[in-house]
Write the structure tokens for this entry.
Amino acid sequence: MDLLRIADQTFDSRLMLGTGKYTDLDVMRAALEASGAQIVTVSIRRVELGAAGHVGLLESLDLSRYTLLPNTAGARSADEAVRLARLARAVTGTAWLKLEVIPDPHHLLPDPVGTLEAARRLVNEGFTVLPYMPPDPVLAAQLEAVGCATVMPLASPIGSGRGLLTRAQLELVVERSRIPVVVDAGLGVPSEAAACLELGASAVLVNTAIAEARDPVRMAAAFRAGVEAGRAAFLAGRMALRPHASASSPLAGVPTLPDPEVPV
């Protein structure tokens, strides 16, 4: 079977889902079901603060079906990320962690220096670290070297729905990584998720594009189909690009008609 392997676990689904921004927990659960996702990320900071839409979040998830991936959303520095990670492990009992270090609430772009520092510390503390990062192949190699289980480069800014603005950089990350590449942030429609899998990404993580759709459950099912199609296309291998047209029908054996402008 074509399974996704992260650290010591394997998964059938290559679509991961976030749990924020849904109108209510019932819609979230239905979207998770429709998506086929097996890995679900939650913000421990939001859960602890009891923010609207998050009260009872952990209790509403069937943890016999989903692998919980707590994240350090809200951490502005490596130190804050490490503190949130320790809290997440204490609250949930899992050492899996989506690492986020985001110092500026305006652009919400990850801090590469802080991310690398926090990743090194957390791996040494026994965490399975899945770091959210800029699409930088140099940083990806450094995160791999310190022992991260995946790298999670962004496609475009968080929640923007602008799609694959960083495609060229993502291709470099995928080409050089020996651990799974999970494209995270900025995807807006299933075709963009399919494109990520087509270029060789191992998985995608989606939240806003599903939670803010007019019909989140239908959109979750559409993303599931897009991810499956993209992975199948990658495994099948795309045709070679050509500089000129190439006839679909064979020319051998086709009678040659005289040129009407040349006298017989």
Summary: DSSP finds ten helices and ten strands in the chain. The CA atoms of residues 32 and 160 lie 21 Å apart. The mean pLDDT is 90. Residues 13-235 form a domain with the TIM Barrel fold (CATH 3.20.20.70).
